[in-house]
Amino acid sequence: MIDFLTAHGALSPFYAGVLRASGVTVTASVAAFCLGMALGVTLLIIRTLCSAPFRVLIRLYVSAMRGTPLLIQLLIAYYVIPSILDIQLSPMQAGILALACNTSAYISEILRAALTTISWGQIAAARALGMRTWTTWRHILLPQILHRSIPPLTNEFTILLKASSLLSIISVTELSTLARNVNLQSNLPLQVFAATAATYFIILFCVSSISRAVERRFAKVLPNAH
Description:
- The protein has one domain (17-175): MetI-like fold, CATH 1.10.3720.
- 81% of the residues lie in helices and 0% in strands.
- The longest helix has 38 residues, at 12-49.
- By secondary structure, the protein is mostly helical.
- It is built from nine helices and no strands.
- It has helices at 2-6, 12-49, 52-67, 70-85, 91-115, 121-128, 133-163, 175-186, 189-221.
- Helix 3 packs across helix 5 (91-115).
């Protein structure tokens, strides 16, 4: 079994670089998700509170991000945006930007769906108590929205992490890039991609465990949030 997994040393380059490549995959995914979450919350608030022209722009943005392939968005972020704005973006930066913009559209829809499950009587009560709009969102709405969105947000992060394999297109040396390079050197696709799949599974299993822990934590803080 060990000989199969190591292929008598032929897969040494994979095992030597798997931690670094996994780190790049996780770093890019976490950074993109955090940026996407911030942008998604902003999109939700603008779409809920602002006037009709802003809501139309937000809907167009969400439709554009969800209706075009992530691969095209990556290429635009890496080749088009730097030339238009006359800025320099590394492959990693361009990849994170594209992933963040893409996931923000999905996150905003997830949060909007969660918002519809909250009784608007809570907002009326907050207004009756003299609470400002931002205070209402910060202390009443957003905690409940995030709590109710944990399962779909976990699923979105899972999709995002697997989609990060597309970063290899713009020369980011992440997990799938390492697997492809080692496979070209060793010509052992079964062992290489089995080891790669196992690595992705371990990462996502850890993510699911963290998600369950966070959900339990929210449940203690907001016991009546359901």
